[in-house]
Amino acid sequence: MARYMGYKRPKDTKKAFKKLLHYLGFHKWLLLLVTVLVFISTGANIMGTYLLKPIINDYILPGDAAGLIRALIGMGIMYLCGVLASLGYSQLMVKTAQKVITEIRQDLFCHVQTLPLKYFDAHTHGELMSRFTNDVDTLQEALNNSFTMIIQSFITLVGTIVMLVVLNFQLSLIVFFFLAVMFAFIKFSSVRSKRFFTQQQLELGKINGFVEEMVSGQKVEKVFNHEDADFAEFCRLNENLRKASTGALSHAGMMVPANVSLSYANYAVSACVGGLFTLAGLCDLGSLSAYLVYVRQSAMPLNQFTNQVNFILAALSGAERIFEMMDEEPEIDEGRITFCHVAEKEDGSLVEQPSYTGSFAWKMEDGTLIPLRGDVRFDQVVFGYTSDKKVLNGISLYAKPGQKIAFVGSTGAGKTTIINLVNRFYEIQGGTITYDGIDIRQIRKKDLRKSLSMVIQDTHLFTGTIADNIRYGRLGATDEEVREAARVANADSFIRRLPEGYNTMLYGDGSNLSQGQRQLLAIARAAISQPPVLILDEATSSIDTRTERLIEKGMDALMENRTVFVIAHRLSTVRNSKAIMVLEKGTIIERGSHEELLAQKGRYYQLYMGQYELE
Amino acid sequence: MSAKNSSKNDPMSGRRNSQKDTLRKVLHYIRRYWLFLGLSLILAAVTVVLTLYVPVLTGEAVDLILGPGQVDFAGVFSIGVTIAVMVAATALAQWLMNVCNNRITYSVIRDIRGEAFRRIQILPLKYIDGHNSGDIVSRVIADVDQFADGLLMGFTQLFSGVLTIVGTLFFMFSIDGWIALVVVCITPVSLLVASFIAGRTFSMFKLQSETRGEQTALIDEMIGGQKVVQAFGYEKKAMERFDEINDRLEKCSLRAIFFSSLTNPCTRFVNSLVYTGVGLTGALAAVSGRLSVGQLSSFLSYANQYTKPFNEISGVVTELQNALACAARIFELIEEEPQTPDDADAAELTDVRGQVEIDHVDFRYRPEVPLIENLNLSVRPGERVALVGPTGCGKTTIINLLMRFYDVDAGEIRVDGVPVRRATRRSLRRNFGMVLQDTWLKAGTIRENIAYAKPDATMEEVVEAAKLAHAHGFIRRLPQGYDTVIAEDGGNISQGQKQLLCIARVMLCLPPMLILDEATSSIDTRTELKIQEAFARMMEGRTSFIVAHRLSTIREADVILVMRDGRIIEQGRHEELLEKGGFYAALYNSQFEQ
Fold first, then answer.
1. Alpha-carbon Rg for chain B in angstroms
2. Domain CATH for B35
3. Chain A CB within 8 Å of residue B98 CB
4. Could you tell me the pLDDT band of residue B2, with boundaries at 50, 70 and 90?
5. ipTM (interface predicted TM)
6. What's the whole-model pTM score?
7. Measuring CA to CA, how many Å separate A293 from each of A268, A271, A283, B297?
């Protein structure tokens, strides 16, 4: 069904096409071969028809049976060549298209991995997915078929027209007239049906939104006894959609019969006039037969050509979106300092080790090793997600090795932002952040993140076994280490109760586990990586107080000798921190230990007294 | 096209049977439009006959012209006129047929969608809770759509395809039996080739779409978890996994497209074979004088027309199978067991005072997992009941039972002495006001949302309710005030503000009983205070069930229900429970004393 009519056209056709050509350019010889084969195949078809003329004139009319068979065999060979050529080009083209698509997909995925988090914040998940699925698919379809089809139909159209003119110039004028009418008709009706189909899509979108809303709001609908009103609304939308769909398709349905009638009329007029010409001796019978076959053929490539042009435009607009994404600026990373495992020699100097030792160091560009201790300092840090709105206004703080620093404050105060900056998910706009005295911008991002482990509120689990998911924190960890990490997070007992234990497969972001269980896995994942700095962003928010107390010991062990940043809604979680920062509107308004802050009787005191929770 | 569809069409045992079953149900819906259906069939027959008769006329005309010097101008002219009329009639019939088909299809679709939606409304909440909402939506929208496509294609092409084949054969035999026989003999080759290729293509496309599904899932995961991916430096591993799938996808796509691309040249080859066969035998017959040139020309155009419907029909059959598979998914939803209807003599609850008794109630979601057993509770009008316990302990279950979203397995819940089972759901729910943590608002203006339960409320009433809910202030500050349209994801107002709107929605009608959920997370302190005040105002003099988090609420409650693992383990006032030194006391102490 002519759905593609609803597609958008590319903004800059030439640019998108050039980029696509760049990809196709890797295979230019194959493409050249494809074009040649398309020529051969189409040519053979056109020539085969032309052979009708000598066959009728020279063999059938004189009654030369032997000659007829010879000529027919010749015609057969001609068609066979055409078939072989078309088989050849379609195979080659498909191969090339697949290669190109694979390359594009790979480049796209590779590029996405390097994009800054900012990009993901600004684009919806569905939008990004649609690049990989819809846009790539349309492009693939177009490359598979449209490229050759468009050449083929173009050659057929031109070849047929040339043949028509060659066979009989006067007669061909009739065909030109009808072709012009058909072209005008296609043009006219595609504009109209586009409007109809857009309307249909619109109505479909409305009904889709409505059903989605109602399914998620069933409870409320029932509580407020709204079933009948909603059903009436649904019926209205449903009827609108029916009207729009019937209209769109009835209109589209008109196109085919109309075109067929036009081509019949074309054929009939040509045949009659041609017959008269033949009688008048202006044209021989063989030419007429060949001519009439060409007339029949002439309408098809025109239809095909216009369809394919639409399709290619749709594909190009997909390609444009793909390339736009590829042109997105990747995360800048000019850092040179790397992270490594070290061992201490007797004389106190450090030596780099290939595998995990429990001690870490920063390796400077000149090869000197600086022990990694986990001393993080913010100096007058200014940051905003957009340049016009500051989220942090000159934050200064320090976390000495082994200290636990907590952040409290209402939503939007900037707690999570601070943590995202330590990780360098975002670039700061002013001030400096140092890590063991090194500006974090000088550290290679990958290595910086290797030194920090993070448990965030929305735990994200990946398809794979539970063990795989824990091992995500350190890929080389042994099974025993995985189990040990799970024990630290108090996840071992529930994992073992699962039918497949550590080999239980998780699907769809771990939807087969409860939110609390998923959070325990995220903690285990952090535990196994054993980094010098630990970040806990509402890490225990979905775990009930009892379980939290159970894992407290494990967590304490995990936090021991590590610099820890904690964000927690539950104040009991942050109470034993070395320092608590109370944030409001991007500035630290109070700082100190739990007791100090309570004694201050400021915001923390209010929060602590007023916001007790019992769960 | 086929690549997209083939995945849904996996062969299962007993598929034929269920297909037949589904077909019967589809026919049931179509039957209502039998008039259009009959018309459509007649029109299809007319179209085919007319289309097929045109070559015969053309052949006759050619014969009239052929003999040099003996042209029957009058005859040619009259045939020409007849052809013109017939062509015009064909076009008209075809168009009318399309209109009929569209009409049937989209009416059937509308009926099915309506039925599905109605069914969703009367399904027990259990169904909605147990199914992914995306899945339900996709059944009502995407599956129905796909079904419509298939149905339409089936109508327009299947019947006329079959008719064309039969008609062509008939005409060919009536012109010359021998040549027609040649055509009939070559036909099986075409069928054989087509079905062989189709079989191969199908399994390849299935593999392709499976691999693609795998790839999409990976991309989906990586994009969704980008933060974790970056934080743990997983990029390289992700690339490796992606590359591996990508390579596999390339290989199986190639193979799939290789087979499908064979279809066109192969059938074209067979078509050419038929055409050549007809041409050869026909030409020989014409040379020997058994056949006129005109007849030969009709024959050749039949030979051309003959093979086309074969290819079309095989396409239509796959499409129809897909459509039936989709229809089966829709019928699954439509035939889902609805909630038990209200008794015919069910009581209307009016002037409720708010006395609630829970009497020896047993309930479990799944028969094998015991949940609530022998629950007893008596609440006098105006009392406050606090539900306390760790997350997932079953507080929501109590709410579900009170509202009769689920029915109890044993025992009874009574409101003002009337068992809820004996009252209409409608009147029961009308007497409850509910504010949950999950703040569902409908797409529409703020005013519409507040007046949800009472659409005819005046503006003054709406504003009054908003004022009572402390929502008036922020609403007024919005650029469009009460006419502000709430965006689909509610992006233009905060979570706390949404909750205030939900409170205003209840404030407008203020039923005698309330169910409230004290949400705490993701709301800033100032809004939280407002919500608390609004809650307090609402609860005055009303029987209230509160899922409580706040100490002050719990302390002031008339009854505290302490829940754990779906069971009520303690019940009483704050002081009593503390004295008892049980789970509540332990919870309380762990939180508030160090």
1. 36
2. 1.20.1560.10
3. yes
4. very low
5. 0.70
6. 0.66
7. 12, 10, 15, 11
